[in-house]
Design a protein that fits this description.
By secondary structure, this protein is of the alpha+beta class. The chain folds into 3 domains: about 80 residues, Rossmann fold; about 55 residues, ATP-grasp fold, A domain (Dna Ligase, domain 1), CATH 3.30.1490; about 200 residues, ATP-grasp fold, B domain (D-amino Acid Aminotransferase, Chain A, domain 1), CATH 3.30.470. Strands 9, 10, 11, 12, 13, 14, 15, 16, 17 and 18 form a 10-stranded antiparallel sheet that branches. It has a 4-stranded parallel sheet with strand order 3-2-1-4, with helices on both faces. The protein has a 4-stranded antiparallel sheet with strand order 5-8-6-7, with helices on both faces. α1 packs across α9. The radius of gyration is 21 Å and the shape is globular. The protein starts with a strand and ends in a 7-residue tail after the last helix. The protein binds adenosine-5'-diphosphate and magnesium ion.
Length: about 375
């Protein structure tokens, strides 16, 4: 019998996962609030609210196994719908809530920026003065792509934070951000680590291999595997890390080869930084998650030779008039340029910083791949490269 896999969320991550699942012989159905979400172009999407147990249960009744492509789903509604997703509800509950995530880091003794949880604005001023400035306030639930974060340089900035529960966090003097994706079933395997650059808190570029020493790379992968094991993840766990040349003021790091390593946060799902694995590795993040969901064995992904770079295409990188022709333009010089993948997600609405697609390039080294990818992206908008 064909195994039926359900995906909560029909965005670009859901669409790429669905494609990998179909290759593994699965039948796939997705669930989203938005009937025109990216995956709807090629897959069946049931629509309903994230907090409607009946609609969720009807979706789940069509599935042998359910996973999710976003962690901001309503755990209580999933529980009421008797959905037991992969990764588990316990993993989801920890990783969708910054206070629980930080408490986990502390209890698992994984290195992380010092933090304090503040319940509401009435307590924020005093808590921030005791904790010390500068610090970053982050909402406990619902934040992503830098949304729900405020840098507090001094007491004067406290008033900018809305009256919600926040985590106050030490500012890490970041030299490099990296991430590591671990796939886990009976075995635990790690992808090579990715080096990530953000612009205005949104991922801009990912390069592989990350430009860190082999000792740092292996310490990062080791921490990512440990986190997946302690959380007991089945499926994928992405761990984001900060690397700093000097320690953060109030935090305790793991120092390797002169680099201070901090775990930033987790995502128990395919991750934007992992798109590069579609080209750079023997199996992609989507392939390995598909295998776990199909109960097929997984093998450690191998890094192919050379350097690879993924750049996100945001609304501002894409001229309106060019958006439909964009893929063709970029693919136009594809054959000899080292551009391996150009993907536009087919999103109708444009808003600042919205992720519309990505490009992946390869070259003999990471710098070359990055230059190619950025140049290709600049052809998507001749006005504003
Ligand atoms: N404690 C910190 N110190 C320095 N920079 C930070 C810190 N926390 C977050 N940032 C910056 O903001 C980005 C987004 O923060 P993150 O906690 O990963 O939230 P999101 O859920 O929006 O990805 C990080 O990738 C990093 O560039
Ligand atoms: Mg992040």
């Amino acid at each position: 019998m064909t195994r039926r896999v359900g995906i909560l969320g029909a965005g670009q991550l859901g669409a790429m996962l669905a494609t990998a699942l179909v290759k593994q012989g699965a039948s796939v159905v997705l669930y989203d609030r938005d009937a025109s979400a990216p995956a709807s172009k090629r897959f069946r999407v049931l629509t309903g609210s994230w907090s409607d147990p009946q609609a969720l249960a009807a979706f789940a009744s069509e599935c042998d196994v359910v996973t999710y492509e976003r962690e901001h789903v309503d755990v209580e509604a999933l529980r009421a719908a008797k959905i037991v997703p992969v990764p588990s509800l316990a993993v989801l509950e920890t990783t969708q809530n910054r206070a629980k995530e930080k408490a986990f880091l502390a209890s698992a003794r994984l290195p992380h920026a010092a933090f304090v949880v503040v319940e509401d604005r009435a307590h924020l001023g005093e808590a921030a003065s005791v904790f010390g400035f500068p610090c970053i306030a982050k909402t406990i639930v619902g934040g992503y792509d830098g949304k729900g974060q405020w840098l507090l340089a001094s007491a004067g900035d406290v008033g900018r934070v809305p009256d919600v529960a926040v985590v106050l966090e030490d500012v890490v003097p970041i030299a490099i951000e990296v991430s590591c994706i671990v796939a886990r079933a009976d075995e635990t395997v790690a992808f090579p680590i990715f080096e990530n650059a953000h612009v205005a808190h949104v991922l801009d570029t990912t390069v592989l291999p990350a430009r860190v020493s082999p000792e740092v790379a292996s310490a990062v992968a080791q921490l990512a595997c440990e986190a997946a094991q302690i959380l007991d993840v089945r499926g994928l766990l992405t761990t984001e890390f900060f690397l700093a040349n000097e320690p953060a003021a109030r935090s305790e790091s793991t120092a390797v080869d002169g680099m201070h390593i901090y775990v930033n946060e987790f995502a128990p799902r395919p991750h934007n930084s992992g798109h590069v694995t579609r080209v750079a590795c023997s199996s992609s993040q989507f392939d390995l998650l598909a295998k776990v969901l199909m109960n097929a064995p997984i093998e450690a992904p191998k890094l192919l030779s050379g350097g690879f770079a993924m750049v996100n295409v945001l609304s501002e990188h894409c001229d309106d008039a060019l958006v439909s022709r964009a893929a063709a333009i970029a693919i136009g010089d594809h054959a000899h340029s080292g551009i391996d993948e150009v993907m536009l997600y087919g999103k109708a609405g444009r808003s600042p910083r919205r992720k519309l697609g990505h490009l992946i390039a390869h070259a003999p080294d990471a710098e070359g791949a990055m230059a190619l990818a950025i140049r290709a992206r600049s052809t998507l908008n001749p006005v504003r490269p």
